[in-house]
């Protein structure tokens, strides 16, 4: 039964310094957030976390490659998490706390391009949208509050995923086709960084109407690549008033199924 299910990779979050109470003194943790895995499982896909390969603990990058992982999956979801490092888009951090995670950036950019090369669809969530933008040559606002005039509250440390604001879907885009007549909707918001310069080939699919912050993008390249600034995996747990997350996942999985079919057809060619 499981052989027929889609296999979806999830990029790993990286905790470089685990809190002492977890019992992993001096160790690095790689992990996934439960909601994103359960969002996939709810759509009957299998979720696989893809670990970063850093070259330590005797693991040779020459013997185990991210491309090997990508060949075994049907699509990739880039998780949210820590800031991207400004160094990844040619800038210096404006504040030490905005230095981000350069190690994770390198790992996920390599993983992203492996999926593009192999024709596997990619869905980016929050940081994942920002990663896609940077991988395609774009840049980020290091902090919305200080760089975007009259910005709405895109992050609230107390409210966390209960913080929400309105988005406006751009007519004629892939997102507008998914949601029909819905032009405005409410989404959660847990980010203090956002797209500044748009990456090559990316099309804006939604913005925050109050301040113009980009909330969704799609790539016009050969592979399916889409990104959302909000966390759709937090929408499907029964909270009312938020944009339905199902159409996004259904489209992504349909693309993964199509990509699997293309691969199967190519394998049958003599």
Protein structure class: alpha/beta
Radius of gyration: 18 Å
Number of strands: 13
Q: Using the alpha-carbon principal axes, give the shape.
A: globular
The whole-number mean of residue pLDDT values reads 92
User: Uncertain runs with pLDDT below 50, 5 residues or more?
Assistant: none
Number of helices: 7
Name the strands of the widest sheet in spatial order: 4-1-5-6-13-12-11-8-9
Provide a brief overview of the structure:
This protein is an alpha/beta fold and 270 residues long. It is 27% helix and 20% strand.
Topology:
Elements: E1 7-11, E2 13-15, E3 29-31, H1 34-42, E4 46-50, H2 66-71, E5 75-78, H3 102-118, E6 122-125, H4 127-135, E7 140-141, H5 144-147, E8 164-169, H6 174-179, E9 184-188, E10 194-195, E11 202-207, E12 214-219, E13 225-228, H7 246-268
Parallel strand pairs: 1-4, 1-5, 5-6, 6-13
Antiparallel strand pairs: 2-3, 7-10, 8-9, 8-11, 11-12, 12-13
Helix pairs in contact: 3-4
């Amino acid at each position: 039964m499981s052989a027929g299910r889609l296999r979806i990779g999830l990029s790993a979050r990286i905790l470089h310094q685990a809190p002492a109470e977890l019992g992993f003194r001096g160790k690095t943790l790689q992990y996934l957030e439960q909601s994103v895995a359960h969002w996939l499982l709810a759509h009957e896909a299998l979720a696989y976390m893809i670990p970063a390969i850093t070259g330590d603990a005797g693991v040779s990058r020459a013997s185990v490659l991210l491309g090997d992982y990508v060949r075994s999956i049907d699509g990739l979801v880039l998780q949210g998490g820590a800031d991207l490092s400004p160094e990844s888009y040619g800038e210096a951090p404006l504040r030490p706390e905005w230095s981000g995670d350069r190690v994770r950036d390198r790992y996920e950019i390599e993983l992203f391009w492996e999926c593009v090369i192999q024709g596997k669809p990619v869905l980016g969530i929050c940081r994942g949208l920002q990663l896609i933008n940077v991988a395609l040559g774009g840049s980020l606002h290091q902090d919305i509050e200080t760089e975007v005039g009259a910005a709405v509250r895109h992050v609230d440390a107390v409210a966390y995923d209960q913080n929400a604001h309105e988005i406006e879907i751009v007519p004629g885009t892939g997102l507008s086709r998914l949601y029909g007549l819905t032009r405005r909707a409410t989404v959660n918001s847990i980010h203090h960084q956002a797209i500044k310069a748009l990456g090559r080939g990316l099309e804006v699919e939604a913005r925050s109407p109050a301040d113009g912050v980009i909330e969704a993008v799609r790539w016009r390249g050969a592979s399916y690549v889409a990104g959302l600034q909000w966390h759709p995996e937090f929408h499907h747990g029964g909270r009312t008033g938020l944009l339905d997350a199902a159409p996004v996942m259904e489209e992504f999985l349909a693309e993964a199924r199509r990509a699997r079919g293309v691969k199967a057809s190519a394998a049958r060619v003599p």
